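Researcher: Here's my situation. A collaborator sent me these components and asked whether they could plausibly form a single complex. I don't have experimental data yet, so a predicted model of the whole assembly would be a useful starting point for our discussion.
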Amino acid sequence: MKVLCILLPHFPLGCEIHRHPELEGRLTLVTRTEGSWKTVLDFSLELDGLQPGMPLQEALSRHSEVELIPGDMPCYWSEFNRILDALEMKSPLVEGSDLGCAYIGLDGMEWVYRNDEELILAIREAIPSHFPVQLGLAIGKFLSYLGALNSPLGGCSVVAGDAGAFLKDFPCDVLPISWKDKKKLCAFGLRTLGQVAALPLGPLQSQFGPEGRRIRDLARGQDESPLYPRSSEEAVEENMCLPSLSTSLDVLLVAVESLLSRAFSRKCLRDKGVRSVSLWVRTPGAGCWERRIAFKEPATDAGRALSRIKHVLARETLPGPVEELGIRLGGLCHESGHQKSLFTDIRARDQLEKDIKEMEFRLGSPQVFRIKEVEPWSRIPERRQALTPSGR
Amino acid sequence: MVQNTGKASSPDTIRPVNIPELVRVEEDSRGFPVRLRSKGLQAVAIIADKWRIDDEWWRTEMVSRLYFAIVLKSGQRLVVYKDLTNGCWYRQSY
């Protein structure tokens, strides 16, 4: 399959520089935290010898005088998804499973674009100008990726002819394998793809298991992996900034409730339920925290979703005081059946909330507010209670 | 994909309650309130209590307040505080 690889080199750092232009020209390292494990996500071009996925400790031993920025994955993915959305307007077969690297299937595209140049021009138009882009055109994803790596910034490289000759001088670092396996290849003295391709299959499989065959096939330019186009999913997103930094669970729950109420009051969620909520929080200096919470039964209102989120949040440790948070409701489905409460007071409360929603729909903005205790123990009086829109 | 509203600061978001209200206070040499300008100039009859709050010192906008529970000549009881970071006086229920 003919594939075009669109590589946005140093994409996370590019997003950071776009948000904070003062970082331009400074030696910066974007980090990623997975549990207690910190790795390199991206780095400035001037920092040599670094690789994404490398343990942070190892990176700092090479370059100690760098500015560390905790990676903001929700922000990077949001930016990347916008680019993928724009690319989908050019071709229906778009894969974007890795941040900053997208593949486009070109089979059948000759009916839309007269030649490759026309297609490449259309692709470049879809990508914001502040992101440098490298393009590679080849048969298969891996070859097209290497083509993109080999092309100059803003250029496009077409890989045709003898794949083995093209691949042999590339370092093993370009293989899409784990950092651990790359180190292992290096420990065996295998530095280039040509050296790996020359090895028989048996020793590679005995050392790397099933991954050994893949490594050898890729090193020989044989890439049978299919293109996985993005599956579109309807989702509802909401976010808010807190009035002040907070570490209090009660404050977070009030904020989440407000976001959920706002999301469930939207027209697209009327008479619908959600199967999952992705909750993210942004903390100054400590990066982002994100958790996906799935529901056994679809949640059809803010109250049901909140009870599950409350349970999860109570067990979590956030990386620092929260300044911004957001939710993404996914798995939208229709309500299977909803039993009304037997108790009259609960039915009356539901009716009141319905009436408030109707009034706000007519008048356009929150009209009824509720006072909620958020930090009743606080020594600062204005932190003890908060005003939240009722029924939204 | 349903677009994110991106709403951040609007009446929709949570808002604090009991926000301090700026008042004009005349103080003596010790920094204690003697007169308060609220519906005319009113003298302070009694300072019933005094306490200090220092909090969130790790943030750029730290909280440092000197609270006074006062009784005015008219008999009205209220709580005022002096913000020690900017020197202004505020009235707030405690």
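Model: Some features of this prediction you could bring to your collaborator: The radius of gyration of chain A is 25 Å. The first helix of chain A runs from residue 11 to 19.
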